[in-house]
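Take a sample.
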Amino acid sequence: MIEAQGLVKRYGDVEAVRGLSFAIRRGEIFGFLGPNGAGKTTTISMLSCLLEPTGGTATIAGYDVVKADQQVKRRIGLVPQELALYPTLSARDNLDFYGRIYGLRGRALRQRVDEVLEMVGLAGRASGAVETFSGGMKRRLNIAAGLLHRPEVLFLDEPTVGVDPQSRNAIFEHVERLNAAGMTILYTTHYMEEAERLCHRVAIIDQGRIIALDTPRKLITDLGGGIIHLGVANGMAEELLEQIQALPEVGAVTRLDGKVKVKTTQAQEALVSLLALFNSTDTDITALEVLEPNLETVFLHLTGKRLRD
């Protein structure tokens, strides 16, 4: 449904997107997971024909995003991170406005506005001014605007930023229902729990590059049993590093920012063995952190930093 090959975007000397290549299948929820500034929004802007790529190519439903941008725009819905709503207008008036931009008129427009308001649970607030809505309600109305023309592909750029947990769950349910009805969705987030719940596959992006791409389960499984960070008072002696590496629950040992990162096959069992080893060598531990396997840990393992750093 979506294919990108070597996608690049430069702003002067700054390369925001650095040769991204990926393919998204029809009917898939595909996630871009990465910190702010990783290149997620820039990539969506290129796919939705708002920015022209500096290099590489991208197609949606077989249409090139540069050479056939009008064909692409008919097939996509974009829900930007920033709210694209007029606060003094009602929910219905906002959707009427966007519906007319999409070419809807008369009964077809009224019917479709009713449908999308019902879809996002705002039918009872159709006449209310948007400025009176909660953050979660505004986000849901933002999604409704992107659905008016029945797109084949929906781009959701950080759709839960600034909303409460209840509203987040409502947005998750809407996304899942849309996908169950056959919609292809590209979902960007820096919340690993969202990617784990919603996405069939995830591309982990950092500094404009894809550093891993697979199902959330496979990415987590490949990491193993988790990661342990250790620090000792006078630094880690080479002999002690070798002893840690020899433990049966340990997969790899590397130095990281003055500490030691231990990749394990079983974090809890490895922790017991490590504590026993340090006790037997009379070595004081100054720092200890156990990271259970999840997408946050995968990102930390691949980049050496956290998603929200």
